[in-house]
């Protein structure tokens, strides 16, 4: 959870499956996205970068990030887009549930494909479809 007036710990998770990409191209955008979401804050940035398939459950940095979130070492996660977190829906939901339990917000540079909004829509659908609600998902 981001708290004003302290150094907040941000994790930038960047997964790519091509060797010719460089995560540093996104760092300025990460800072801008954090400022849009939280205003001026002090950040301790940790990079979690790996070249791997988004469907691979054994991604080293992804699993390290989940563990550090669970151990209360991260306040907010930033990624480029939701699909960069995971291309497997089960892995995506597990990650987002870990973040939700730890009160860690997930922001994406691509606000159209924002992980937090996607997770909320999926939760709303699950409640409406499986919970017996007559409310239509929006």
From TrEMBL:
Residue stretches making up the Resolvase/invertase-type recombinase catalytic domain: 10-130
SMART domains: Resolvase (SM00857)
InterPro entries linked: Resolv_N, Resolvase-like_N_sf
Family matches, as Pfam families: Resolvase
Protein name per its UniProtKB record: Recombinase family protein
Organism the protein comes from: Ruminococcus turbiniformis
Species classification: Bacteria, Bacillati, Bacillota, Clostridia, Eubacteriales
């Amino acid at each position: 959870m981001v708290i004003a007036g302290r150094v907040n710990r941000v994790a930038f998770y960047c997964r790519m499956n091509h060797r010719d990409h460089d995560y540093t191209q996104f760092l300025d955008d990460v800072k801008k996205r954090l400022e849009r979401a939280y205003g001026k804050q002090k950040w301790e940035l940790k990079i979690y970068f790996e070249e791997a398939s988004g469907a691979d459950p054994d991604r080293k940095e992804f699993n390290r990030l989940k563990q550090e979130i669970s151990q209360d070492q991260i306040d907010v996660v930033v990624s480029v887009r939701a699909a960069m977190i995971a291309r497997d829906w089960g892995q995506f939901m597990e990650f987002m549930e870990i973040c939700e339990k730890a009160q860690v917000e997930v922001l994406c540079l691509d606000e159209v494909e924002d992980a937090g909004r996607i997770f909320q829509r999926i939760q709303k659908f699950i409640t409406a479809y499986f919970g017996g609600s007559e409310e239509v998902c929006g």
